[in-house]
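Field log, afternoon session.

UNIT: design team B
ACTIVITY: writing a sequence onto a fixed backbone
BACKBONE:
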């Protein structure tokens, strides 16, 4: 049987409860043999990453040590180039040729997915597991993706190029909001895990 690998990427600047709750939710579904968390070096979506690689990696290490079968993969940080999903997936496919790869994304990312570099080739290497959240009702899914949607795990894991929605009640948090609250000395207990907040304060991150 082909092993199932989930891929959870992002800037993690910083990692927050939106990320950790998503990971716990997916882990508890027990549909993956392993999940790899992959921090970006430089986002192709022009996000302004503020904390350096060392701090972002350390914060991820602090959180992920408590997660079984969820591993940190620093492949994009080591490459030291703009982090394009297609390039990362090609590397992963070479490392794990017999594994089924699933890219875990939010609904907002799915709506913009056809703007991603080599998006069609991405779907030749993986399937998309989408964490469904309430968004602007005016947004519409590109018709090129509609026929790729499946409704169950059996179809989803039968090959690549599939899209499956996961309904959930996860909180919608952004790292931008977290950084703004840090700058304004606001309460973060509902947004960031205690150990991460302690690290941010100790290292004086996101103050400027």
């Amino acid at each position: 049987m082909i092993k199932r690998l989930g891929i959870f990427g992002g800037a993690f600047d910083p990692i927050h409860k939106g990320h950790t709750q998503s990971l716990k939710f997916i882990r508890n579904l027990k549909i993956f043999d392993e999940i790899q968390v992959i921090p970006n070096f430089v986002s192709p979506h022009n996000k302004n990453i503020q904390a350096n690689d060392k701090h972002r990696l350390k914060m991820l290490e602090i959180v992920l040590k408590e997660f079984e079968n969820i591993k940190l993969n620093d492949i994009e940080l080591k490459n030291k180039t703009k982090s394009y999903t297609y390039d990362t997936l090609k590397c992963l496919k070479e490392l794990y040729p017999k594994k089924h790869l699933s890219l875990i994304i939010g609904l907002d990312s799915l709506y913009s997915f056809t703007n991603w570099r080599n998006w069609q080739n991405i779907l030749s290497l993986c399937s998309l597991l989408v964490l469904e959240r309430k968004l602007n009702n005016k947004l519409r899914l590109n018709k090129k993706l509609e026929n790729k949607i499946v409704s169950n795990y059996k179809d989803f894991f039968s090959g690549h190029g599939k899209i499956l929605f996961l309904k959930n009640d996860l909180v919608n948090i952004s790292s931008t909001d977290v950084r703004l609250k840090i700058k304004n000395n606001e309460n973060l207990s509902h947004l960031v895990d205690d150990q991460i907040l302690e690290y941010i304060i100790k290292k004086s991150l996101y103050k400027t």
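LOG NOTE: Residues 4-169 form a domain with the Rossmann fold fold (CATH 3.40.50.620).
NEXT ACTIVITY: expression trials, pending approval
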